[in-house]
Fold:
Amino acid sequence: MQTILGAGGTIGKLLARELLSYTDKSRLVSRNPVKVNETDELFPADLSQAGAVDKAVEGSDVVYLVVGFEYKTKVWEAKWPALMSDTIKACIKHDAKLVFFDNVYMYDRNAIQHMTEESPLNPSSRKGAVRMRVSEMLLDAESKGMLTALIARSADFYGPDTNNNFITQMVMKNLKHGKKAMWFVGPDIKHSFTYTPDAARATALLGNTTDAYGQVWHLPTDSRNITGREIITMIAKEFGAKPEISILPKWMLLPLGIFIPVMKEMPEMMYQYDRDYFFDSSKFTHRFGITPTPYEEGIKVTCSSFRV
Structure:
């Protein structure tokens, strides 16, 4: 049995599809799970409730933690450590391997220009401090031999049928409706983006590769140093729109939050957009020989699926 905690989110749904290549016994855990494959087992649960994680994990061989809490610092601080603690305890109790789908918020701001699995950890935000705390909880249990686990990290992502991400909210929605794309700070700063189908496929592969455990992995991401302007131009071409850009300075984020709530949470994260941001996934590529989806191809598929 392979179990997905957070199966209702974008990555969870894609991951369920990918797991069919490895098992016909997948358990999808969320508040209101929906089958992705005919053989999926549905397990409705509120993972914040006492005992819920333990029940969800029981009988599992591999557990994928891909939960996406509301993008609010206070929510993360309250819920992430508790969920990670419950998940680690449950995996130890039921002898299940753990795969944690992570982000890059814990890296030192001076490492953003070229992030690898060995980049120094020194978060510059409260959200980053939460991510470092929960990843250290997992790695500590793993290093003590209590748990078999790995961390799969993604850059900012984009992909078909995704909504709560920068590319969809700030670029695609606007260009689709004849407005200017919005971008933080400057469009000629470089910024990597991970394609969600690549991330899910790689996460499933890692979870089913014995010697991948005990490590941190960057999920496959196009290795080109691409700028915001280039991304916007590609998306505009797919929509038959002009690649016009409106720059968002930091001071506009809070007022903009009236209309786009997630913007209220962005000021502390602006260091990830005011400098080049390159996500190096060469470790994964060299190990598995899998080439990430080129931006042009991923954007074409993403735009064709966009319905809002």
Remarks:
- The chain is about 35% helix and 15% strand.
- The chain has a mean pLDDT of 93.
- The CA atoms of residues 65 and 86 lie 11 Å apart.
- The radius of gyration is 19 Å.
